Amino acid sequence: MWDMRKSNQAKGDWWAPCPFHQEKSASFHVDDRKGFYYCFGCHAKGDAISFLKDSENMGFMEAVEALAQEAGMQMPARDPRAAAKAEKRAELADVMEAAVRHYRMMLNSGAAAEARAYLERRGLSPETQERFEIGFAPEGWQGLWTQLRNRDIPEDLILRAGLVKTSDRGGKPYDVFRNRIMFPIRDARGRCIAFGGRAMDPDDKAKYLNSPETELFDKGRSLYNHGPAREAAGKGRPLIVAEGYMDVIALSAAGFEGAVAPLGTAVTESQLAMLWAISPEPVVALDGDTAGLRAAMRLMHVALPLMEAGKSLRFALLPEGKDPDDLIKAEGAKAMQAVLDRAFPLVDLLWREATEGKSFDSPERRAALDRDLREKIRKIPDVSLRRHYGDAIKEMRYQLFRPQRQGSWTPRRKSQPIRPTTKASFLTSAGPMAEHQLRESVIVATIIATPAAVSGFEGPLELMDCADPDLGRMRDIVLTHGSDGPDAVNEAISRELGGEALDRLMSHPHVAICPTLRKAGNVELAQMTLAEELAKLKARRGLADEIAEAEEELSGAADEAVTYRLSHAAEAANRAARPGNKDKGDFDLGENGARISRDEKGAFEALLETIRFEKRRK
Known about the structure:
- The protein is an alpha+beta fold.
- The protein has 26 helices and 17 strands.
- The protein has a five-stranded mixed β-sheet, sandwiched between helices. The protein has a four-stranded antiparallel β-sheet with strand order 1-2-3-4. It has a four-stranded antiparallel β-sheet with strand order 5-8-9-10, with helices on one face.
- β16 (587-588) and β17 (595-596) form a beta hairpin.
- The radius of gyration is 32 Å and the shape is globular.
- It starts with 12 loop residues before the first strand and ends with a helix.
């Protein structure tokens, strides 16, 4: 809605609340003379074509055709055969619209009393029925056929539209849909291309029946509620993939307008491509029972060979025995939103399929798990994405099998009492993780003190594990607000985590002495520190992975290759410790060029000794 107090129509100067983000003030400006818009709030900008592309999620040609139609302009002439095909499709679409009107009228007839009662029991208000153009096909063999023929619609068009079938007995064609509640299926441009019918007779062989495939309708390349969901997703709403018509209608009525459904089958590759054209990460909402999980896993296997960076899926499992319609009716939209908020990534489903209900109490079973996961991940064509999936699986595997090694022999040290001043410190934890977390603390403290140093390190910072959740949240705040300066960063951290978290980090003795804190604002010094600490973290994590793999392989019968790997790593570490090393106490870990400190080298040798002990004992 234009703000007429701020706009100047004579000069083509228009102002309105921005359609791309929620606001009350008019910060969206249109210069009608130049044909451009700009929002001073969210910085959206473009011309008439980009406006339709962004506001209604249209493709370029769709936006051009829509503007041309609104302006009454003729589109450039197309290939004659393509033009003839488009004209035939337009004729069929007109027939389908006539059928929509007929079914809508029949819903208000006396024959539809039971259908109206059913819709009322399902909670569909008259407004919702109007919005989705729900209708009714009465009993009788030629009701729609007779109505359309009375309007002089050619028989051939009615047949090609898939609304009637020819009789095997030489009689008149008969209606496909009888005694069913009718749901028009529209394409992305809003044209009715098919119908879905829900049987009123509980003894009917097919509870739901779709139109047959026609020149307009390809079931595997269509989505229910495609156009409205695309528009909603273009405005930032989540794209939700539900199971059926009623779920989509219930979701939309509850405020989740970006809901779509496949048409009675599992999601196809074509439908998945359509979903990704709307949103890079659709949320698949499925029943939380066994059938729902199986459907999710089938979709996962369809998606794996098609995935690439920026295109994935999330899965939201509803309470067992409930679909979105049931959940919204019973507990409201907030309960549905809570389910969506708990949606998990595809990699978690991949891991769940491989591990759920299985035991890995032998080397053979663990090896089989590794083989199965490798085969599935290998389907991902994007090399970078495949590597990230491998990293995520490796972390899950580490968490699964790590507790099984806690009973292994380790050298015991005489326990020392912990002083009160160190009880809250993460350095009281044993093992190399303390130093790992200390490096993360130095990195986070550095970017808080000098946010400008983040430039060029965004990727490694985002991939940093952050064992302490508070460190991870501080890191995320800096990445989000760093461009606003240190004061804005400190204010955001205090607002989200409280002042104590920041004080605890900055006052830690090992952090407080860092030169980057004493010389806050020195971008060059901060970036040198970030480069060094991030490189050490990467090397340390690589070392931990190598040791974990070696331990795992030695849990069964060790072979010569593994023994060689361990002895070679130990020899490399010992060689690096000899006089003449130039790097002030750092040691080379072999061919990959990673360096470890004296303390890390000691931990490494202790772990190697533990592994050797386990092997000798076996």
